[in-house]
Write a structure and sequence with these properties.
This protein has about 375 residues and is of the alpha+beta class. Helix content is about 30%, strand content about 25%. It has helices at about 10-20, 60-70, 90-100, 150-155, 180, 215-230, 250-260, 265, 270-280, 285-290, 345-365, and strands at about 1-5, 25-30, 50-55, 75, 80-85, 105, 110-115, 120-125, 125-130, 130-135, 165-170, 170-175, 185-195, 200-210, 215, 240-245, 295-300, 310, 320, 320-325, 330. The chain is elongated and about 75 Å long.
């Protein structure tokens, strides 16, 4: 029995290791377009690799898998799980080492150009034949790390539906001057995305001001609504509406302003000066601006800066991770239309889907 896995990222490596653990006699070959396996893993979690989250569905199964190959991890106060070393390279290295010791063949610098319905895989390094093919080629986010959208094209050519693709967990761009003036400042706030004045998404957390617009976890989590809007032929007017002081009521803020005349004791000098100048030193206006600060949003930083892709191969075309239409074809990871918030949830799904795909292949033998 031979299984070819397309993509040596998180889901592909997890799938390969689990396959060989379950059936040592199973021939497993990974075809990777980049010059090395696990390249995108190295960039996750700012180089620390946010493996999972204690609140993620199937977190226990994922961590059991890693415990079984000797990776020690620990969670922070927000539930984000990192390798004990705090180095993403530890995760990539242990997976690649496991592949080597288990007998998984990894062929790098190999581009897949076609898969036919008989699972004949055509590449720039020759033709491969398999009993099963797993497409674990990632999405379109950060193509310099390996995800160039090729998995979607392969699945679509085999009759699978691909939903609309937009960047997700990505920074937002703004034409407002204020983010540039506040470059590097972080605030804990409540931020909403409004389209033509109607709120479509909102969240509480940290926002980072940048020279191009907005970043930070809240920004990332709200970016899908923005990306989907600007993917339309005629996008709606988009604003980020920020409550800079969600723990202080409008009336409390007015009393504070009436007593001290500015917000320096709450927001610091730079942000207070901007709000007061924008409000023309008027207390009522300043309170309104601080609670409903509107910034024009012009789009996102795009796929090259996105952490993941929104959209993908429709889950309706799969039974678990097995194709309903092509015998022996499977898909896992980011290539599927399944997305989550920041904090290790997406990487958790990548590992889990790879493990489950391997289990399905073994069960289907």
């Amino acid at each position: 029995m031979t299984t070819i896995i397309i993509g040596a990222g998180a889901s592909g490596l997890a799938c390969a290791v689990r396959l060989k653990q379950a059936d040592p006699a199973h021939d497993v070959i990974i075809l990777e377009r980049m010059e090395r396996a696990g390249k995108k893993i190295l960039a996750t979690g700012n180089g620390r690799c946010n493996l999972s989250n204690t609140r993620a569905e199937h977190c226990s199964e994922v961590m059991d898998f890693f415990n079984g190959i000797g990776l020690v991890a620990r969670a922070d106060e927000e539930g984000r799980i990192y390798p004990y070393s705090n180095q993403a390279s530890t995760v990539a290295d242990i997976l690649i080492s496991q592949c080597s010791s288990l007998g998984v063949e990894i062929i790098t610098d190999c581009t897949v150009t076609d898969i036919d319905s008989n699972l004949c895989v055509t590449t720039d390094k020759g033709i491969f034949f398999a009993d099963n093919v797993v497409i674990a080629a990632g999405g379109m986010a950060q193509k310099n790390l390996g995800s160039n959208g090729s998995g979607y094209r392969l699945l679509e050519a085999l009759g699978h539906n691909i939903t609309a693709l937009t960047p997700a967990l990505v920074q937002l761009t703004s034409s407002s001057k204020y983010p540039r003036l506040l470059k590097g400042h972080r605030v804990k706030c409540k931020m909403a995305i409004q389209l033509d004045g109607a709120t479509v998404e909102e969240e509480y957390g940290e926002v980072l001001f940048t020279d191009y617009g907005l970043s930070g976890i809240v920004t990332m989590n709200l970016s899908v609504a923005v990306a989907e809007n600007f993917a339309k032929p005629s996008p709606q007017r988009c604003h980020a509406v920020i409550d800079l002081l969600p723990d202080i009521s409008h009336e409390e803020l007015k009393r504070y302003l009436g007593k001290f005349g500015n917000l320096k004791g709450i927001l610091g000098n730079e942000l207070s000066d901007i709000i007061m100048k924008q409000a023309e030193q008027d207390i009522e206006k300043a309170a309104c601006f601080a609670k409903n600060w509107r910034l024009i949003i012009t789009g996102t930083k795009g796929f090259d800066f996105a952490q993941i892709t929104n959209g993908g191969a429709s889950l309706e075309d799969f039974d678990g991770f097995k194709s309903k239409s092509v015998k022996g074809l499977y898909a896992c990871g980011e290539v599927l239309d399944r997305q989550f918030e920041c904090g290790g949830f997406n990487l958790n799904f990548a590992w889990y889907s790879g493990i489950c795909t391997a289990n399905q292949i073994i069960a289907d033998k």
